[in-house]
Amino acid sequence: MIVIEPDFVTTTRDSYDKIATGYADTFADDIQRLPLHTALLSWFADLVGDGPVLDVGCGPGRTTGFLHSRGVDISGVDLSSGFLAIARAENPGIRFTQGSMLALDQPDGSLAGLVANYSLIHIPDEVLPEVLAGFHRVLRPRGWLWVAFQVGDVPRHHTEGFGHPVDLVFRRRQPDAVATFLTEAGFDVRTRVVREPEANEPTPNAILVARKRPESDLD
What we know:
By secondary structure, this protein is an alpha/beta fold.
């Protein structure tokens, strides 16, 4: 059977393949320069315990590597072969695979946690329920979900990045709207954090941590 991939998936993958090196070099110190973010990631590591955890849309693998350093049994998946090459080179002890969050191949109920760190920003609103249903499927009852995103109401379309032509849409969302998506997908939102932008960040940023409702498997 031939599966036709949505256009936004194709353009997102192709764009990040072009800019993977420039992106990774520019944001190499993100973990170090965002102490609140990393403190919350450390807390998330405590929540999920000994895993397993999947970092969906892992990019160059910096978040994956950070959580691994905190003892999390974590792997990463990303569309971009360019990003994956960097992630594997920097984190030789972590398994990274190429794939789409629209088609996760993990077994049902197999994960203790799932991380979507600024990766849902490329998913259109009308596709979010499908993606979150996939997250719900692979998480254990009471499994933990991390979602980080830029706060706003207007998407930003990038046509150039790091000296290359790209076609990337960054969908900014309000925390309440994302919480509603999560609730409707069978999650209970347990924590909401909104921080003001740091230098060179155009918008506030939000982190939502949610837990899969055990009874939602029966809905």
